[in-house]
Amino acid sequence: MLNGSRRGPTTQGSLFDERIRSSDADGAVGIERAFSVPFIAELALKEKQIQQNIRPVIAVHKWFARRPGTLFRGLLLSEFAAPPLAEAFFRPHQLAGVRVADPFMGGGTPLFEANRLGCHVFGWDVNPMAWWVVRQEIEHLDLEAYEAAARGILDKLEREQGDLYSTDCQECGASNAAVKYFVWTKAIDCDDCGEQIPLLPGYILAHAGRHPRNVLICRRCGELTEAESLDEPGCCRGCGEELVVDGTASRGRCTCPNCDFATTYPRPECGPPIHRMVAIEYHCESCRGTHRGRFFKRPDAADLDRFSSAGRCLADLALRVVPDDEIPDGDETARLHRWGYRRYREMFNPRQLLGLERLGRHILGVEDERVRNALATNFSDLLRYQNMACRYDRRALKSLDVFSVHGFPVGLVQCESNLLGIQRPGTRTNVGSGGWSNIVQKFLKAKQYCDEPFEVRYSNGRKSLISMPGEWIGDRRNGSDEGRVVALHAGSSTEAKLSESSLDAVFTDPPYFANVQYAELMDFCYVWLRRLVTAEAFRSHSTRNPDELTGNVTLNRTLEHFTEGLSTAYRCMGRALKPGRPFVFTYHHNRLDAYYPVAVALLDAGLVCTASLPCPAEMGGSIHIHGTESSIIDTVFVSRSTGRVARRELADDATSIASLVRRDVELLREGSVRVTNGDARCVAFGHLIRLAIWNLRSNWDAGAAVEKKLARIGREVDRLGGWEAVHANIGADILQSRRRGGTIGEAELAYDGGVDDEVPF
Ligand SMILES: C[S@@+](CC[C@H](N)C(=O)[O-])C[C@H]1O[C@@H](n2cnc3c(N)ncnc32)[C@H](O)[C@@H]1O
Ligand SMILES: [Zn+2]
Ligand SMILES: [Zn+2]
Ligand SMILES: [Zn+2]
Hints:
This protein has 761 residues and is of the alpha+beta class. The protein has two domains: 2-140 and 474-760, Vaccinia Virus protein VP39 (Rossmann fold), CATH 3.40.50.150; 166-202 and 247-348 and 384-438, no CATH class. 33% of the residues lie in helices and 16% in strands. The protein is built from 23 helices and 27 strands. A seven-stranded mixed beta sheet has the order 21-2-1-22-23-25-24, sandwiched between helices. Strand 10 (253-255) and strand 11 form a beta hairpin. The two termini are 19 Å apart. Mean pLDDT is 90; it is low at 1-5, 7-28, 621-627 and 737-755. The structure holds S-adenosylmethionine and zinc ion (ZN) (3 copies). One zinc ion is lined by residues 218, 220-221, 223, 236, 238-239, 241.
């Protein structure tokens, strides 16, 4: 049964019964039986490619490493709705009365999926930004009032500083073309001749593709020239100088184009880097119909003047919104320090600071608290596009925001987006990215989705939108008094106060050891947001917190520290969970020992792992997923304090674990996932950890020292063969192939075990 259902939806009675089914009631439902790996894998994979289209609510505010919403919907419905999952998934539900907690809510995926299904939700996050973001996602908002306020602010900004984003069109001479992006390069002064050296890694501004031809910057006069070929780019149309592709700067070394003096960068002792404007990409409504491709120009004197005038205006203002906070040391912030940045505000140019100061003041003037908070959230999200760490993507011809990787990348070519955004006259269509109008538009879509969520179904290559009447995300229903419990806590889940046996389920996505430094990154927004928002949770100057669970070298946070914290949080949740109810979380790491804390925490909490299910949770092409050995597969660990485990899941040596891995690989492939060696490794890690927990459950000493507990897990994993032995038995034949279906494991998959084939615990 177990494997039949894992494999895919089975046929069942068509009557849908909204009664809450508990997995231990009749053995007929529960994640272990009702979840379908291929069905959810396919949906999750599609979602991760275009997450904002499948779960628009995530556009409320950036959060890192969001797990797929479809996965958590699949898990919740496997547990609480009548099977088959493939039918339940596309039907609306009202799981009234079900109480679900998430101790590490982050961007809120498990919580808003549960809330949408009608559950009461209880969430914790030690980072006040996460608490804020989830609150903004779930809190009901009067969208008409919001839209009017957002538009009013845009009009004011337009009047105040619209001209700072206008330029003269080079094609038709119109003086009101709208700047999409200002492209800047970092620069240093030459120690020898005193000239400014532009730190350009290359002279290509734009690669042919989105624009008909390549666009090159002249190394002598800075003019822009279009070239068909990069092998023979020809000469500058301004000064006749031969065009070159390779720039002046690479890997910390540069040569002065004026005197050939060789020197190094960055130079933190000279303060934050200086920038030079090298190009403008703009939009001209007047000659849009006759012009092919994008509009590029070299900045002219008027463009430079406008920029200087912004600096003068800023100097005249007594700043109320712009923060003065210093950037503390950290694993991620170290890079900022290496570039001479000491304060967050140094990462913005004067025009950005001026715009943000004015925008913030307008937001502070909005009376309605929920609308004001929503606008403050937009402001915070806008910051990631309005700073001088944004890079210009020379192929996609757009801005890469500061959070396009899970760190603070400092590039040499920066992109300053139009702060207001550009909307085509008479339409709400945005041209370009990174402006206020872009943020407002995606926020509106996000909140509209909360009022009327949908699913996307794919069949035979066709996509259809399925509406879900009766489902909604919120603390109260749009236009009615109907409400549900949404209890969100800005605090560590190690200190969560919950009554015993008060929860029906825990669904979470804990920190994956040192994968993302949430606090270091989120401080970038937080130092601004706390100037616009009054909240007890925003009293501290930083989102850093000694209780944050993560590996961090600067803070000396080790695997042991992480284990102890995770264990405390899991014990806390375990106590609050009704006996036999599911404690479910995703996990993913490229190192096996980074899974040991998970095993310790579950054992300490008296939970036994009943399933380890694979699911794609990252995008293959994601910028931070690199190297052939990295994986897009998460393991979903399902645990309970009591229940039954299928005997055939209880492998005890590398050969039988390898066949479980092969089976899972096959299931993922059925879900159209291309499974690599790195993915198979993560699947194997999941099984090894699950089995180590199973084997150690009956004589586990939760009171032992953490080092001893971790070592015990390590020994058990080794005894099971570890990755090497499992790997040797998997066989490379099923990996890295796009072939679907296949015969591997068929005999095992057809096995139809009864209750006797389950082991109680
Ligand atoms: C992987 S994220 C969760 C992502 C989220 N589920 C989503 O889909 O976007 C883990 C979260 O755990 C939080 N965290 C770390 N230590 C914590 C603690 N002691 N208590 C509560 N939350 C904590 C981090 O701030 C982070 O937001
Ligand atoms: Zn024009
Ligand atoms: Zn020089
Ligand atoms: Zn030239």
